[in-house]
Design goal:
The complex is a heterodimer of chains A (340) and B (465). Chain A is mainly β. Chain A folds into 3 domains: 108 residues, Immunoglobulins (Immunoglobulin-like), CATH 2.60.40.10; 105 residues, Immunoglobulin-like, CATH 2.60.40; 111 residues, Immunoglobulins (Immunoglobulin-like, Sandwich), CATH 2.60.40. Chain A has 2 helices and 26 strands. A 5-stranded mixed beta sheet of chain A has the order 1-8-7-4-5. The termini of chain A are far apart. Chain B has 465 residues and is mainly beta. In chain B, the strands form 8 sheets. Chain B has a 4-stranded antiparallel beta sheet with strand order 3-30-29-28, with no helix packed on it. Chain B starts with a helix and ends with a strand.
C-alpha cells in the first residue's frame, strides 16, 4: 500500500518544468536542476535530476530531447544539452524507473540573453578615450539589455515590458526594481571596496527569465599633471612623469583628477592644495587645478606637490608629486633657428 | 703721401672696428628683442607657419627626416651653426666654418623669422615651381602637434589639422609636397576628423570647459580681404555643445554624434550642417565609441583594463551584440566584411584576436597590442597591419596610454586573418620610438598614416619597400 502511495505521489507531482526553472516541493519525487540557470543560445546546459525518494543511481533513466531518446540506462542522473538559437524551444524529458516508483519530469529550455553594462559618472577630461571608473562618492550607471524571444512566433519581447529585480550585495533594492526598470544608478562602492550587483529580468508571467551578476570595484582618484601650452592647450597626450625637464622659463600646469567625484577639473567642491618647493601656492580660485610657475632667475628643480580633497566627500583624497626642471631657454636660444 | 696712407689705413681700420662693433651691438640688441618677441609671438599663435621637420621652400616641404628631430631649417638633421659662425661665414664669403656661402641667400637667412612663408600661389598644397624628391619610406610630415589626419578619396593626399590654429594642410606621400589649404583660425584644436571628401570636424574646449564641435567644409570662395592669398576659409556650423563622441560617415557627408542629458545619451545622425537629424539609439550610458563603416555602425563601450566591454551593431534603433563581456575590449571591424580584430586588456595582459567570419572561432594572434593600433588593408585578402608595442610595462596599459602616462615604441606587423598568421615587417627605426595613435590607411593600401602619441606629430609609412 505504501509503495502504491509513493507511486501515486510520484506520478502526480512529477510535473513539467518550464523555462529554465524547476518547481521544487516536498512532494515532488524528481526535480531537474539546470546549470547555468539561465542558459543562453548555443550553450551547453547540464540538466541534473534530484530526488529525495528515488535512488537515481539504481534507477533506469530515459532522456529525451525534443521527443528523441538521447540517452538511456542506469545511473544517468544528468545530461548535457545544447540550446538552440534565441527563443527556440528545446524540450528535455527524463523518465525514471526504479523498484519503488516511476517518475517523469520535463524541462523546457528557451534560451535568453542579457547583458549588463556599466560605467561611472566620475570625472574624466574631455576627449579621454577610456571609461570612467568608480571611486568613493561617485555613482555607477548600469543598463541591462535583455534579449528575450517568444518560442511561439519568435518575436522579441520589449525590454520595457519585463520585470527587473536589482540586488546590491545580495539585498534587493526595491526602489529601483520593477517593470521596465532596466536602467539604474547605484552609489559606487566605498573606498577600495567591491560591490556585487545582480539583476534578474523576467516576463510578467515568469515564463522566461535571465539573471546576471557583476562585480564592481572602486579605485582612488588619479592625479595627473599636464603642461598647459599657450598654443596647444592642455597637452593631454603627455602626462608629466616624476622628473621632467621643461625648456621654458615660465609654464602653466594643469592637474587632472581622473575618476574624482567632480563634474569638472575645477569643480568648486574640489580642494587643491599646491606646494612648490615646500611653499604653499595659492591657485586661481576659478581654475584651482592650474598653476603657473615662473622660474626666471631661478635654477634647479621645482618640486610640485599637490593634495586633492573634497569639500563634502571625505573619502576623496589623492596626492601627487612631480619634479620639474626649467631650463633657461633665453640663455641658449638661437634666435635664427626656425621654430618647430 | 705717407700721412695720407696712414690716415686711410686708420680710417679703414676705424670703419672695420665700427662695423664689427655695430654688428655686435646689433646682435645683442636682436638677441634680447627676439626672446621677448618670441615669447609674445608664441602666446599669440605666431611662429607655427610651417610646422615641419623639414625644409620649407615656398610653403612646400620637400622632405622629412627619418627618426630625427630637425635641428635646422633645412631639415637635414645637421646641427644649426651658431650666429657668429654664420656672420663670420658671410663676412669671409664661406671660408669660415667650411660652410658654403650662398650669395643668393644673403642676409635673409639670418632674419629671425627664417625662410619665407608658404607660397601664396599654393593651393591644395601644390606649388608648380618646386621639384621635390620623394619622401623617405617613414616620413615625418609635421613636427608640430596635429589634431587629426585623414586620407581623401580619389587622391593620394593626406589632410591634417594643425593643433595650434586649426588650419587644414595637405601632404602628398608620393611627392612629399605639403601645403596649407585653409587659414581660418581655430585655436587649440584638440581633435579633428576628416570625411573622405575632405570635409572636417574640428573639436576644442570652450572657456567654460565644454567641448565645442565645428563641422566645416573648405570654402571655394577666396577671402576678399586679401588679393594675394589663395588659402580657403573654413565654413560650417557649430554642433551642440559637449558632444562626447562623434563619427563621420565613410560614404556621405554625414555625422553621428552622442549627446547626454539627465535622461541618458542619444546618438543622432545628422547632415554636415546638423540638419535632417535622426535618432539612432538611446542609452543610459554615455561612454561609447562609434565606428561608422560603409555597411554598418558599431557602438563600442569605452575600454578600461579588466572592465567588461561590449560591442554592438546599431540596427533599427536596436543594439545587436557583436562581442560581449570581454575585459578591456577594443574592437576593429572590417568594412564590407564580417571579419574583425579585437583586443583585450586585463592585469597587464594585452591580447589581440582575429575572427575571420561572424560565426568563426576567434584566433589569438601572437602579438600583444590593441585593435585601435591596427588598420585593415583594402582589397580582397583579409590583411591587417598592426602597430605592436615592443614592451608593455604597465598592468593598466589602457589607462596609462589613454592618459598619456605610458608610451610605447611600436613595430609594425602584417596580420593575415585568413591564415591566422602575423609577421613583423621591417620599418625604419626612429629615435625615441613611435607610439602609434589613430592609424589610417589610404584607399590603395600603399601608405599608413598615424600620429605619434608621444607628441602628436604626423608620420606616414610607405608599406612596400
Amino acid at each position: 500500500m505504501k509503495t502504491l502511495g509513493f507511486l501515486a505521489c510520484a506520478l502526480l507531482f512529477a510535473i513539467p518544468v518550464y523555462a529554465q526553472t524547476v518547481t521544487p516541493g516536498i512532494y515532488t519525487s524528481v526535480t531537474a536542476e539546470l546549470s547555468p540557470e539561465s542558459p543562453e543560445p548555443d550553450q551547453l546546459v547540464r540538466v541534473t535530476l534530484k530526488s529525495s525518494i528515488i535512488d537515481l543511481s539504481l534507477a533506469t533513466t530515459t532522456w529525451r530531447v525534443n521527443d528523441e531518446i538521447v540517452q538511456q540506462g542506469h545511473n544517468v542522473p544528468s545530461i548535457e544539452v545544447r540550446t538552440e538559437e534565441l527563443g527556440s524551444k528545446t524540450t528535455v524529458t527524463a523518465e525514471i524507473e526504479s523498484e519503488i516508483a516511476e517518475a517523469r519530469t520535463q524541462v523546457i529550455l528557451i534560451p535568453t540573453e542579457m547583458d549588463v553594462l556599466w560605467e561611472s559618472d566620475s570625472y574624466t577630461p574631455p576627449f579621454y578615450k577610456g571609461r570612467a571608473l568608480p571611486s568613493a562618492g561617485t555613482s555607477v550607471r548600469l543598463q541591462a539589455i535583455p534579449r528575450f524571444k517568444t518560442s511561439t512566433n519568435s518575436t522579441e519581447i520589449a525590454a520595457q515590458t519585463l520585470v527587473y529585480t536589482w540586488k546590491r550585495n545580495g539585498a534587493p533594492v526595491l526602489s529601483v526594481s520593477g517593470v521596465g526598470k532596466s536602467r539604474v544608478s547605484f552609489p559606487a562602492p566605498g573606498l577600495f571596496g567591491n560591490d556585487t550587483i545582480e539583476v534578474e529580468a523576467r516576463t510578467p508571467d515568469g515564463a522566461l527569465s535571465s539573471a546576471r551578476s557583476i562585480r564592481i570595484s572602486s579605485i582612488e582618484p588619479l592625479l595627473t599633471l599636464y603642461k598647459v601650452h599657450p598654443l596647444y592647450g592642455i597637452m593631454f597626450y603627455e602626462a608629466l612623469g616624476k622628473r621632467t625637464d621643461v625648456p621654458d622659463e615660465e609654464l602653466s600646469f594643469a592637474a587632472i583628477p581622473f575618476f574624482a567625484d567632480a563634474s569638472s577639473a575645477h569643480d568648486a567642491a574640489l580642494v587643491y592644495a599646491w606646494r612648490v618647493n615646500d611653499k604653499p601656492i595659492t591657485a586661481d580660485p576659478e581654475q584651482a587645478n592650474i598653476i603657473t610657475i615662473d622660474a626666471s632667475g631661478s635654477t634647479g628643480m621645482a618640486d610640485i606637490e599637490l593634495t586633492l580633497s573634497h569639500a563634502a566627500n571625505f573619502f576623496l583624497r589623492a596626492v601627487g608629486a612631480w619634479g620639474v626642471t626649467f631650463t633657461n631657454v633665453l640663455e641658449t636660444i638661437d634666435p635664427f633657428r626656425p621654430i618647430e | 703721401m705717407h700721412t695720407t696712407t696712414r690716415v686711410l689705413e686708420f680710417t679703414v681700420a676705424a670703419i672695420i672696428v665700427m662695423m664689427l662693433g655695430g654688428l655686435a651691438g646689433w646682435y645683442f640688441f636682436i638677441k634680447g628683442e627676439t626672446a621677448q618677441l618670441q615669447a609674445s609671438d608664441t602666446a599669440r599663435g605666431f611662429g607655427t607657419d610651417a610646422p615641419f621637420s623639414s625644409g620649407s621652400t615656398g610653403g612646400v616641404v620637400t622632405q622629412g627626416t627619418t627618426g630625427q628631430q630637425a635641428t635646422n631649417g633645412a631639415g637635414d638633421g645637421t646641427p644649426s651653426p651658431g650666429l657668429f659662425s654664420r656672420i663670420a661665414n658671410t663676412l669671409s664669403f664661406g671660408w669660415w666654418g667650411n660652410r658654403s656661402f650662398d650669395s643668393d641667400t644673403g642676409i635673409t637667412d639670418f632674419l629671425p623669422f627664417g625662410n619665407p612663408g608658404p607660397d601664396d600661389d599654393s593651393v591644395d598644397g601644390k606649388t608648380d615651381d618646386v621639384t621635390t624628391p620623394p619622401p623617405p619610406r617613414l616620413w615625418r610630415v609635421s613636427a608640430a602637434p596635429a589634431a587629426g589626419i585623414g586620407f581623401i578619396d580619389g587622391t593620394a593626399s593626406l589632410r591634417f589639422v594643425d593643433r595650434a590654429n586649426g588650419n587644414v594642410w595637405s601632404a602628398d606621400p608620393v611627392t612629399g609636397a605639403v601645403g596649407r589649404i585653409t587659414n581660418t583660425l581655430m585655436p587649440k584644436t584638440y581633435e579633428a576628423l576628416f570625411a573622405r571628401d575632405g570635409s572636417v570636424v574640428l573639436r576644442s574646449i570652450s572657456d567654460s570647459g565644454l567641448i565645442s564641435t565645428f563641422a566645416a567644409v573648405a570654402s571655394t570662395t577666396l577671402p576678399s580681404t586679401s588679393a594675394t592669398t589663395t588659402y580657403m576659409k573654413l565654413e560650417g556650423v557649430y554642433l551642440p555643445q559637449n558632444i562626447a563622441t562623434i563619427a563621420v560617415s565613410p560614404s556621405a557627408r554625414k555625422l553621428l554624434y552622442l549627446t547626454t542629458n539627465a535622461q541618458g545619451t542619444t546618438a543622432t545622425e545628422a547632415s554636415w550642417r546638423d540638419g535632417e537629424r535622426k535618432v539612432l539609439f538611446t542609452s543610459a550610458l554615455s561612454q561609447w565609441g562609434v565606428l561608422w563603416l560603409p555597411n554598418k555602425i558599431i557602438a563600442v563601450q569605452k575600454a578600461a583594463d579588466g572592465a567588461s566591454g561590449y560591442a554592438f551593431e546599431v540596427k533599427s534603433s536596436a543594439l545587436i551584440p557583436q562581442l560581449r563581456d570581454l575585459p578591456g575590449l577594443t574592437y576593429l571591424p572590417r568594412a564590407d566584411s564580417n571579419a574583425i580584430l579585437f583586443g583585450t586588456s586585463e592585469r597587464g595582459s594585452v591580447r589581440l584576436y582575429s575572427q575571420a567570419a561572424k560565426d568563426a572561432t576567434p584566433v589569438e594572434l601572437p602579438i600583444h597590442t590593441t585593435a585601435e593600433k591596427c588598420v585593415w588593408a583594402p582589397g580582397a585578402g583579409q590583411i591587417a597591419y598592426c602597430a605592436v608595442p615592443q614592451e608593455i610595462n604597465s598592468r593598466i596599459y589602457l589607462l596609462d596610454s589613454y592618459r598619456g602616462a605610458e608610451h610605447s615604441s611600436d613595430a609594425w606587423w602584417k596580420v593575415d586573418i585568413s591564415a591566422g598568421t602575423a609577421e613583423q615587417f621591417e620599418t625604419p627605426q626612429t629615435d625615441g620610438g613611435i607610439d602609434v595613435f589613430r592609424p589610417i590607411i589610404n584607399e590603395s593600401g600603399t601608405h599608413i598614416a598615424y600620429l605619434n602619441a608621444r607628441d602628436m606629430t604626423i608620420w606616414v609609412l610607405r608599406i612596400a619597400e
